[in-house]
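Note on ligand handling. Small-molecule inputs were canonicalized before submission; formal charges were left as drawn, and no protonation-state enumeration was performed. Where a ligand contained multiple stereocentres, the stereochemistry in the source SMILES was retained. For zinc ion, this procedure yielded the string shown in the input block below.
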Amino acid sequence: MLITRKFEFDAGHRISTHRSQCRNLHGHRYVLEVTILGGIITDAGAPEQGMVMDFSDVKRVIRETLVDQWDHAFLVYAGDTRVLEFLQSIDGHKTVVLEVQPTAENLALIAFDSLHRTLRNKYAGRLELEHIRLFETPNCWADVNKVDFKFDLVGEAPGS
Ligand SMILES: Nc1nc2c(c(=O)[nH]1)N=C([C@H](O)[C@H](O)COP(=O)(O)OP(=O)(O)OP(=O)(O)O)CN2
Ligand SMILES: [Zn+2]
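Structure output:
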């Protein structure tokens, strides 16, 4: 059985190598859809009876793992040194440094990697991350599915 919860967060970025507008500092209201695979809990009287996972727990776990860290942060490529140095010059600025350009594709892969590890560690064998969809704008999004994940990570296979 699959369940999906949607999250929204605001973040700044730029694609420093982009040929056009996206090389400018700008931001998005990202929409992240997280789909989890698991069996329905059938234990009579259990608080989660009839559920794969309580949506309020999905919210808490996904926010703690990722969304709260990215919300109102600037997502910057480590190779974008001018912008990184500028952000580091601002006291207390919420900056997330990435080893890859903060495209929708790369952010979706990073999100999948992080959430997959969390679900595996907390709910080993019972719940599994099935799919991530990250909207950068209402018209543009990237998908990562577990069957594609190991072939998609930039430069390396996902850790064990
Ligand atoms: N494959 C990708 N292409 C682009 C990405 C990306 O992450 N992956 N990102 C950008 C820009 O950052 C920008 O966010 C997208 O801008 P744009 O193409 O203008 O998208 P809009 O939905 O705002 O465009 P409309 O024309 O208003 O529909 C660029 N490319
Ligand atoms: Zn953008």
